[in-house]
Each structure stands twice: as structure tokens, then as C-alpha cells.
Amino acid sequence: MKKIITTTDAPAPIGPYNQAVLSGNTLYTSGQIAFNPETGALVLDDIETETKQVMENMKAVLKAADMTFDNVIKSSIFISDMDNFGQINAVYGSYFNDASAPARETVEVARLPKDVNVEISMIAVK
């Protein structure tokens, strides 16, 4: 059984997908990019600000499923330039306790939706 998770505190999907799907106790989130959910504008001022917006969007999706970053067991980070890894990693890491940080991969890709610099998806378990 699956339950669709939606919130107005994160950007609405820009295609035929949902913000997240809960299957049993496992939450599968769609990738989040740096849309400001209040204005609909992309937040691309700098890589730290962009990454913070992505993480705040993800926080809202997790909250809609009654979860937090403590529930995250796996993250996937897609970046357009590996030279931004350190800055992205610092912002991302500030949302987790090092002792309970999830498994993760970070992959450089040729291009991301809306030409953003970072997209993050997660899997979380209650």
C-alpha cells in the first residue's frame, strides 16, 4: 500500500510525479531543487544558499510524512560541478548528526532540471 505525501511548504512537482511516496514505513522522496515554495522562484544566489533551500524543501517533505532528518537512511546528491562538493557537503552535513548520518552517494551529472547546481533525494524509515 502506498500513500502520496504532499505539502505546500515544498515546491509543487514540475512533472508527473509526487513530492514523496510512503510505502509501509518507508518514505521515498522525489529529488528537490532550490525552488522557493512561497514565490516559485529558483534560489541560485550562491551554492550554499541553493543547497540550503534544497534541504529546507526536503525538511518540509519529511515533516509532511511526520519524519525528520533523523529518519533518513539514504541520500542521493546530484551536482553539476564536483568543484562545489565541499560547499554542498558542508550545508548538507549541518542537517545531520555525524553519528547517525545516512548512507549517501554524490554524483556529478551533465545537467539538472532548470539548470540548477544541486538536486537531492532521500529515503527515510519510521
Chart the SSEs and their pairings.
Layout: E1 2-5, E2 20-23, E3 26-29, H1 47-64, E4 72-79, H2 85-93, E5 103-108, E6 118-125
Helix pairs in contact: 1-2
Pfam families: Ribonuc_L-PSP (PF01042)
Protein name: RidA family protein
Organism: Gelatiniphilus marinus
Offer a concise description of the structure.
By secondary structure, the protein is α+β, with helices and mostly antiparallel strands. It has 2 helices and 6 strands, in the order βββαβαββ.
What is the percentage of strand-forming residues?
A: 25-35%
What is the CA-CA span between the terminal residues? 15 Å
CATH class: Alpha Beta
How is the main sheet built?
6 strands, mixed
Structure write-up:
With 126 residues, the chain is α+β, with helices and mostly antiparallel strands. It has a single domain (2-125), classed as 2-Layer Sandwich (60s Ribosomal Protein L30, Chain: A). Helix content is 21%, strand content 27%. It has 2 helices and 6 strands. The protein has helices at residues 47-64, 85-93, and strands at residues 2-5, 20-23, 26-29, 72-79, 103-108, 118-125. Strands 1-2-3-6-4-5 form a 6-stranded mixed β-sheet, with helices on one face. Helix 1 runs parallel beside helix 2. The longest helix is centred in the middle third of the chain and has 18 residues, at 47-64. The mean pLDDT is 97.
